[in-house]
Predict the structure.
Amino acid sequence: QVHLVERGGGSVHPGGSLSLSCEASGNTDSIRTMAWYRQRAEDDQRNYVAYVTRAGTTDYRDSVKGRFTVSRDNARNALYLQMNNLKSDDTGTYFCNVETINGNSKVDYWGQGTQVTVSS
């Protein structure tokens, strides 16, 4: 099992910044790619935001490119998301997701989420 805890959510004005973190514990040696997803109140599913592989390769959804930076610290089993120039459309619950591989078993784990609110 892998346990994930997100921190750093809050309320900011448009143009503001927030830093999110995700701490993993448990069977952390099995972790491969780590990613952020978000879910808006009006949506029925979580939507992809960004990922970073164990080797450090990153990827972002188009709407956050140039504003968000995803990173990880493998020694601390931590995932981070620096969010700058926040927009109202960035509002939502942000979830940490990790892909694990142990032999032939592939399992995704999710954190509880942290709320981000961007409003005037």
Summary: The chain has no helices and eleven strands.
